[in-house]
Amino acid sequence: MAETVLSANDLQGWYGESHILHGMSFEVRDGEVVTLLGRNGSGKTTTMRAIMGILGKRKGSIQFKGAETIGLPSNAIARLGVAYCPEERGIFASLNVKENLLLPPKVAPGGMSLDEIYEIFPRLRERAGSQGTKLSGGEQQMLAIARILRTGAKFLLLDEPTEGLAPVIVQQIGATIKTLKDKGFTILLVEQNFHFASTLADRHYVVEHGHVVDMISNDALEANKGKLQAYLGV
């Protein structure tokens, strides 16, 4: 069994006075794609923000490669090799594609070169001189993922990468995630599109009301189909 890269134990999290995470506990092993599944408002994105250190208040334990990170600021967590691609993508509209790609600092050795990124995302090479405001939703999502590949981070937090995208673009994002897994990346994925998640992930954690209520391995999905439908309302 691969070693555990990230583990959360009794993770609590708040937005202001609102208590959102109520004891999240899960682990992600080296080289896995793991999903957090759950209905809107269950705490999935809040968990991502807690891992990245950009949640106002958090308690409990988050260990990355054996080191406790719960008290670290977000820039220190990033320099451990963790990268976050938020649902809103965060593209700089006034910069072109190439400038967006070159903007993030390298946090670890082994970051991809522009040519390597363009091999995975040939569309970005074609659009290298286009401003962020001129990109389609799919192109923005490609750019958001591509941008974190330059940093050298090998643990990726991907929040709703297929949200609002056409089916053909969803297929391209799925192929990209498979390529990254083949290259040795470890990925924690928040995804509403369960069918999409089931084609990629090794394991699925089901989240309700800010805590994990079940873990289902991908090869056990068919046997747990009814239970998942009850959890997710699909």
Structure description:
The chain is α/β, with parallel strands linked by helices and 234 residues long. It has one domain (4-232): Rossmann fold (3-Layer(aba) Sandwich). 32% of the residues lie in helices and 28% in strands. It contains 9 helices and 10 strands. The chain has helices at 44-52, 74-78, 97-102, 114-120, 122-126, 137-149, 167-182, 194-198, 225-232, and strands at 4-15, 18-29, 33-37, 57-64, 67-68, 82-85, 155-159, 186-190, 203-208, 211-217. A 6-stranded mixed sheet has the order 6-7-8-3-9-10, with helices on both faces. It has a 4-stranded antiparallel sheet with strand order 2-1-4-5, with helices on one face. Strand 9 (203-208) and strand 10 (211-217) form a beta hairpin. The two termini are 32 Å apart. The mean pLDDT is 93.
Summarize the structure.
The chain has 234 residues and is α/β, with parallel strands linked by helices.
| Full CATH superfamily name | P-loop containing nucleotide triphosphate hydrolases
β-strand amount: 25-35%
- One letter per element, helices H and strands E, the order comes to EEEHEEHEHHHHEHEHEEH
CATH topology: Rossmann fold
